[in-house]
Amino acid sequence: MSDIDIRIxxxxxxxxxxxPKALNALSxxxxxxxxxxxxxxxxxxxxxxxxxDAAGDKAFCAGGDIAELYDSGTKGDYAYGRKFWSxxxxxxxxxxxxxxxxxxxxxxxxxxxxxxIGCHGAHRVLCETSQISMPEVxxxxxxxxxxxLILSQAPGRLGEYLGLTGFRMxxxxxxxAGFADLFIPQDQWPSLISLLExxxxxxxxxxxxxxxxxxxxxxxxxxxxxxxxxxxxxDILNSLHNDDSAFSAATLKSLRRNSPLSMACTAELLxxxxxxxPSIRAALELExxxxxxxxxxxxxxxxxxxxxxxxxxxxxxxxxxxxxxTSATSQMLMPLGAETLTFEEG
Length: 346
What we know:
Strand content: 5-15%
Largest sheet: 6 strands, mixed
Shape: globular
Helix content: 40-55%
Number of helices: 16
Order of helices and strands: EEHEEHHEEHEEHHHEHHHHHHHHH
Number of domains: 1
Strand order of the largest sheet: 1-2-3-5-7-9
CATH architecture: Alpha-Beta Complex
Number of strands: 9
CATH superfamily: 2-enoyl-CoA Hydratase, Chain A, domain 1
């Protein structure tokens, strides 16, 4: 497949995303190719670890390839999207639970679906150009691909802030928030990957890790924890509206761009997932409740229209007054019964 290069090199199973002109956006076929390789390598004694990287300088993976999702959804066909998301989420669970170390090298943009394949492994490496974000609420979705699990476990209320604003994290921010582990200058990556392929020894990663330049989240944490402490979107908005600080003004401006329904559901998802025993399967099952309904009942098609198709940046969201009834959130996150997301065992 020209969009992805999958092979075994020495002791490493190697996955390289190879569509840099599309910012290495994930297609359904790419997801399934990764899933098939991981299944094969799980019982292959030659493969001691898995290394994932991407071609080009601009992006590791800027998200899922949503053009076909939009095309099918606008025709009233929701089955393709549901299949895409359910199979992608099973891949995300496989990566999180994988029995062999997965090492990801994420330069440039890692967004949305890119988080699902880059941020669930045991060793997640960033560099000077890395920018990680979960901007799904801007197109009428919720942070998914297991991203809600990472957000729910972030220090303080960083998870709510990142999930509701789509804030772009540099390396220091992403390590603080739990999306990555190590900062290593990018010019060292080729030699480290070669060592991993030859020796299968992960010690070379920590031995070459450096301290990243300081990001913005550390200084913002106090404001974030104060204003995003409420359980609902309304709580958060009320707190921000009752404060005349520059932080509140900038944050409200950011929130006004996004789907109110998606933001309300994101806050609820993180509230449900926050706890001492996080579960990737619980996170993905909850996310799928939303994405299953996203085209038919949510703002997803309108979000894509405004951002990608017509590019007018003027989405006509449901609940545009930002007052999302509790019933609307509940309806998007109700159990799916027979359509509940299931996972393979083992």
